Amino acid sequence: MGKCSSFTQLLALAAVWALGGCDSGPSAPREQATWEVIQSSILAANCTSCHAPGTSIARQSGLVLTEEEAYNQLVNALPRNQAAAGDGLVRVSNKGLAGLDQSYLWHKINADAHQHAQGEGTAYGETMPPGGPALTRGELEFIRAWILAGAPRKGVVADPALLADTYRPAAELFSAPSPPAKGRQLHLGPFAVAPNFEREVFYYQPLDNNADLFVNRIEVAMRPGSHHFLAYFFPDYTPAQVIPPPEVLRDLRDASGSYVDENGNDLFDWRVMQYHKPIAISQLRRLDYQLPPGVAIRLPAGSGIDLNAHYANYSDQEIQGEAYLNLHLLEPSEVQHEVEVFALSNFDIDLPPGQVTTLEKEFRFKKKRHILQLVSHAHDRMTEFRATVAGGPRDGELIYTSHDWEHAPLIDLDPPLVLEEGEGLKITATYDNQTDRRLFFGYTRKDEMMILYGYSY
Ligand code: HEC
Questions:
Q1: Cβ neighbours of residue 381 under 8 Å, at least 6 residues apart?
Q2: Ligand 1, atom 2: nearest CA belongs to which residue?
Q3: Cα-trace Rg, the chain
Q4: C-alpha 51 – ligand 1 centre gap (Å)
Q5: Would you give per-residue pLDDT tens digits along the chain (457 residues)?
Q6: Ligand 1 midpoint to CA 316 (Å)
Q7: Whose CA is nearest to atom 13 of ligand 1?
């Protein structure tokens, strides 16, 4: 304070103090650094009651979150939790996008990420703060923006307006979302998932639409216990005999976990997957995805949606699987750009046994593209998936990364990534094949895949 007090400024001292500082003069209110907001408004209010020096919890967790200690104890610090340390996580990574799912703090506060980590049998402890109240979506988004910006100590890297969103995702129990004012609500289930069983089902719901429909916003709500929810539509060229029977639950596996019946025939008609185009992908229990104004996904007249949910029940009690999908529609006259769902797929997969192999493939677009959303797809042996820009001024920039084959993150590019004609994306995936056989491209988990799905216009 003393440094900037002069006689003239002293006259305005009361005003200066009211603004909280005088570094930049009395008339310019100083914006609080994002880290300081996290520390003073989120950690101090929700965490330091336990994570304070000298407490038994500080000793147990090895973590103190008071103002003096928190930054150094988080950024690039090793977790005390053995499973997290063993998975190569740090408490908070400063590698930006590449570091989000490598940040143990993120798994500890984000109930959805956490549920997944537990679902895979790792012991990441409880969601913080234990026993609640959980952090709000605004607080989570604020911390996420800070981690994506490389977790700096100084500077404003997250919009404080995010904090106005006080919805608490972890506290929310499952409920049907209200149907869209203009659009369709589709419903999958409820269906039983036996104890210690993974059930994956598909359910085809015709839309009975005699004209094209234009979807501009997608909401998903799922009952807990889900690995993923996907919704697919079928493009105009899909052969009629491939379209599934309406309103029937189709299981991928029978109750014993087998994919084939007693005659050795597949229970599931895998041909449909070759025509599936994803319209919604969610690993979160609640998703609300809004395309830019005037941008829409076109569902052809007379089409339908194939709903797909994968539930894992690790408990000894039966659980219920259930999901809702809301499709919000635009009038055809409101549509300026139609979204294309693209799949950049490397079919050239050959993974020798007992080895780590990295594959890469570059794709160039034939016309200018605005990329809105990306999500990867691979199977069990994938340890890292990356996408970088190929060509143009942003050549080499990392725009997508996943370390989790089962719950690949869905990345929103807002603003969209603009690629000029001839520019593209390069996908790189690393596989650790610890089996004793060579693995190739294949639709089942016995083999591997390497796909980057995206929305673009
Ligand atoms: C009621 C007490 C309590 C509160 C409040 C609390 N924690 Fe914890 N925290 C614990 C305990 C106990 C552990 C160790 C067990 C575990 O990891 O589940 C822990 C562990 C952690 C760890 C893992 C440390 C490591 O390296 O293994 C992180 C990160 C963490 N807490 C963050 C937070 C954050 C962020 C908040 C506030 C949003 C918070 N905690 C609030 C009790 C608490």
A1: 351, 405, 431, 432, 433, 434, 435, 439, 448
A2: 50
A3: 25
A4: 7
A5: 333 333 333 333 333 333 333 344 444 456 899 999 999 999 999 999 889 998 878 888 999 999 999 999 999 999 999 889 988 999 999 999 989 989 999 988 987 666 555 444 446 767 788 655 778 889 999 999 999 999 999 999 999 999 999 887 765 557 788 999 999 999 999 999 898 888 999 999 999 999 999 999 999 988 877 777 899 999 889 999 999 999 999 998 888 888 888 888 888 887 888 788 888 887 667 788 889 999 999 999 999 999 999 887 766 678 788 999 999 999 999 999 999 888 899 999 999 999 999 999 999 999 999 999 998 988 889 999 999 999 999 999 999 998 877 667 778 888 899 999 999 999 999 999 999 999 999 876 678 999 998 999 9
A6: 28
A7: 61
CA atoms within 13 A on the CB side of 346: 26
Cα 365 off chain centre by: 25
Nearest alpha-carbon partner for 116 in 321, 431, 412, 406: 406
Query: How far is ligand 1, taken at its centre, from the CA of residue 421, in Å?
Result: 49
For residues 430, 75, 152, 34, the Cα torsion angle rounded to the nearest 10 degrees is 120
Q: In testing the pocket of ligand 1, which one of 39, 42, 50 has its CB within 8 Å of the most ligand atoms?
A: 50
Q: Which atom number of ligand 1 is nearest to the Cα of residue 84?
A: 27
Per-residue CA distances from 69 to 63, 82, 148 (Å)? 9, 22, 22
What is the distance in A from the centroid of ligand 1 to the CA of 162? 23
Lining residues, ligand 1, CB within 6 Å: 46-47, 49-51, 57, 60-63, 79-81, 91, 104-105, 108-109, 125-126, 128-130, 135
CA 130–ligand 1 middle distance (angstroms): 7
* CB neighbours of residue 208 within 10 Å: 10
User: Given ligand 1 and candidates 39, 43, 63, 147, which is best to mutate, with the most ligand atoms within 8 Å of its CB?
Assistant: 63
